[in-house]
Specification:
Oligomer: single chain
CATH architecture: 3-Layer(aba) Sandwich
Helix content: 10-25%
Structural class: alpha/beta
Radius of gyration: 15 Å
Distance between the termini: 27 Å
Order of helices and strands: EEEEHEHHEE
Strand content: 25-35%
CATH class: Alpha Beta
Strand order of the largest sheet: 3-2-1-4-5-7-6
Number of strands: 7
Shape: globular
CATH topology: Rossmann fold
Largest sheet: 7 strands, mixed
Length: 154
Amino acid sequence: MTTVADLRLNLGCADDVRPDWENVDLVAGPGVRVVDLRKRWPWADGSVQRILAADVIEHLPDKIHTLNEMHRVLEAGGLAEVVVRTTDRPSAWQDPTHVSFWNRNSFGYFEAGHPHHERFAARYGIRAAFNVVLEQMGQTPNGPKLHILLAAVK
């Protein structure tokens, strides 16, 4: 039984169903909770310890909504591990279901203390603030993927 203190979300899991995680996707499957992440997320404020969002945020149309919701449900210091194709190569554009496009600079708008966050967050409706714990650019046959670990600042 998962308690609030150890709730971990595997967002956009597809067939990567992980034990001891709440596996979430828009498409039903064994061990998968169906949630439309384009709407308000069903988890309470500060109720999630960790989020894995591998190859999913580029399928969500509203960057601000996505990162605001991620921040809202994470506990203070909670971690979000995001893996996303970057606009540094054409692979970001090849999948017809990609509706938002990311690179390392995109995260500056959500990074506590970053000049873009300081200047634009209030104006853009960004409530999220994260510290970048770790970042790494990985190479795949289809181009680069950014792996970034974010800690919620509350």
